[in-house]
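Subgroup meeting minutes
Present: P.N., E.W., G.H.
Scribe: E.W.

1. P.N. recapped why we're keeping a running log of single-chain structure predictions: easier to compare across weeks, and new members can see raw inputs and outputs side by side.
2. G.H. added today's entry (114 aa).
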Amino acid sequence: MRAGIRVLDLTQFEAGTSCTEMLAWLGADVIKVEEPTRGDPGRYGRPEKPGLDSSYFLTLNANKKSITSISSIPRVVPVLEMVKSADIVAENQAPGALEQRGFGYEALSASTRA
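Output recorded in log:
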């Protein structure tokens, strides 16, 4: 993979998260976007010790940067701004979930044209 590829990671659980993990290990700059009040479900879904990130989360998200932004509409603007500098947007949310949060395909596509 060519250095300098930026991936905006809106994934959760194994399928999407392992895909973006591979891209990170291949040299992409992967920015994991997490829900601000709880973070990625993998952080707390299988904790070995209360209060610590699970090894499951750490394994699938190593070599990534992380921000919180996904759930509240006022925080959509930073995501839409980040799309402008991303080469890839990866997501595996439930159907319609991104549209409900204000950054489905149409919103992301329009933000790159603005």
